[in-house]
Amino acid sequence: MKRTTIVLAIALGTAAPAFAQAGPPSGWGVDAARSSITAVSRQMNVPVEGRFRRFTAQVSFDPARPADAKAQVEIDIASFDLGAEEFNREAARKEWFDATRYPKATFVTSAVKAAGPGRFEAAGKLTIKGRTMDVVAPVSFKAEDNQNVFEGMVPIKRLQFNIGEGEWKDTSTVADEVQIKFRIVAARK
Amino acid sequence: MASPATDYTRTAIALHWLIALLIFGMFPLGIYMVDLPLSPQKLKIYSWHKWAGVTVFLLAVTRAAWRVSHPAPPPSAAMPAWQRSAANVIHALLYILIIVVPLSGWLMSSAKGFQTVYLGIIPLPDLLTKDKALGDALAWLHRFLTFTLGALVITHFTAALKHHLIDRDEVLARMLPFLGRKK
User: Fold this and answer.
1) What is the pTM of this model?
2) How far is CA A28 from CA A125, A146, B70, B145, in A?
């Protein structure tokens, strides 16, 4: 069995995946500085990017057998950083993420299939603010000598997760469409 | 160069009042919006403020170019020399500020990490990368320049009224043709 699993959880900064293919299971680790999960929304048609500064991920992946791949990501909602204190406080409020009541967002794969060379489609369940939706994330995978990069984007509609209640339901100010972008870099130690 | 002008062109008058209207609207709007609690309304007002600022910038650049190719009528010969100098200095500063105030706002927005998308359609390039300290410094600069512009506008406005009401000359009527000109 070539498939191996690495579980990583880096308390501060970032965290991430796992990898297989070659080498001992412990031979790979996440490059926290180059891994990221961000959410891009549009505010009066101005793209605004926020970054989840803390998350953990478990990935089990063998490029030769994508159907066996599994991934689980857990995001610390309170670590969402829009780059301005006023917006960070707002995002944690009940109308948005309600971070006190729903401190974690999760993504768990249910089916992964190949979608061309170096490309995969990861279907799974995304849970934010206590609501679970089926999503499909196109993922690109690049194996290099000393690092492996998983990259992709999940488009969601924020109102399906009840993100932005009350006056914030108005999508003419903050658009319904949000892109969750991720880049997980596993480097050979 | 055109021959020495005796009147402002219609274009110059239109540009003057368009920019004046935008400044009269934006100044109180800017002061009002900064202390609003975060709401969709606040985000909208910020965007409108930015769009109006870009509009002022475009009009101001057009106006400066127009002024170069269409010289303004000379100041009234009846004015003492110091008043003519003062008027020239204030006019020059007003031209500079109607260009620099919007620029400082745009740079501040870039440094704070929020792109300006003109009318929600045309994304302007971010000239600066996100930098909190720089953003705060530019916010201070934008405010300082805006209040300087405000003080100059009040001086300009008061002087124009003084010309019309006390000196009873044609200085104001040159820019407000409906006041009628003495023949």
Assistant:
1) 0.81
2) 26, 9, 70, 54
